[in-house]
Amino acid sequence: MRALFILVLAGGLLWLALQGFRSVRAEAEPPPEPPRAGFLLPPRPSAAETTVPAPAPAPAAPTQSAVVETKTQSHVVPPPAEAAPPQRVEPARSSVGGEGDRGMEALRTAPSPDELGLASLMLQRPREVPGFLEGAGSSLPKERKQLALALHHLLLGPEAEARRIAEDLESGGGVRAEEVAYLREALLPANPKPAVTGDSPLLLATSLALLARSAEGHLAAGRSREAASDYGQLLLGVLDAPWPTGREQLQSWSDALARAQAGYRWNPGAEWSSVAIKVGSGDSLISVRKRAIEEHPELLVCTGEIARANGLHGEVIHPGDVLKIPTSHPNVLVDLESHWALYRMDSDVVAAWEIGIGKPGSETPPGEYRAGEKSKEPMWFRAGHDPVPFGDPENPLGSRWIAWQNLNGSNSSLGFHGTSDPGSIGEDRSQGCVRMRREAIEELYEILPRGAVIRVRP
Fold first, then answer.
1. Residue 309: domain span
2. 370-424 residue pLDDT tens
3. Which of 23, 122, 178, 290 lies most in the core, judged by the most C-beta atoms within 10 Å?
4. One domain for residues 194 and 282
């Protein structure tokens, strides 16, 4: 009995000792620090919250390191581990259909397909705008319909009706302040071509339509330089526009540009940037070009360009002739989306052609290249196969070949060339090269010097 009592007493003393130890430890530990002023604790997730997915990886870039010129900017694309075909992003359809705040909210988002369709009509077929507003575009806010009608009357008349609408049109309710300001400025007696501010598709389309009208007027009046400038700006603006432009319309403007440039850049009597070289006894175009580059090392020019700029027939020159050597640097802009290529001197568009590009799986890679070797009546070489001579139905290269070099000077295996399949122009059917009609590739072959920059954009 005594042993049992001693055992119970020892257990109790042990329990009291443990409690005392815990109390001392608790006193030694400081209490949690309260939150500091301005510091927010993360909210406790509720059962109603959903998990936000991680952003999808960006589309892979071309397989080579290159400078890619997009429709809005240029940026360096590092070489990825594996290339993937680019994804075409269609503009999101905004919830347009009401007025007031809903209309303004629509303007702060990507333009709706109806708005882009309306802008395309405004530029290419403005007479169809009223019918579009009553049909497919009937869901647009009332104020945007009024703006579109005013711009329609600005282009086609009567201007009195455009002025009446402009007087009643106020910013807000689906119309931006810069759109109202543009319309009123365009209706001034001097009828200027106001500058477009912001990103309104309707203003851009109207501005391009006014530019086309100006170009037509200059060309009809024989003002070749002004017409060429307007048509060049028009083509650049159209290729940058957020809506597609029909190939017939692009071809019409490209043909008009060619007529204007025949009286300007390809007219030795016109005023354009040049240096003069006098032909000596025994000179050829090759020796004239060589002497011009020795005297002006900054020049980038070929004999075909000199001949074209001086109105020569072939390469026949005579002692005592004074040739104008262009000082502007030729370059080519290839726009894959529109299937169009622009030949430029510095930033001025001098010629434009429809092209064919790479088929799915062999897409023409965007990037920056330089014009390399040029060949007339080229043979077609394929790895593991015998060369296919020019004129053979199996040779797809047509009458000319202009190689593309990478920026490090190596050949890229890509190039401009003609085609034995003219129906492929405007389509995606090549192995990655850019195809051109015979007259187009032969023109480019003559006027594009080796070393000229070739920029290919999506």
1. 274-326
2. 999 999 999 988 888 889 999 898 899 999 999 999 999 999 999 999 998 999 9
3. 122
4. no
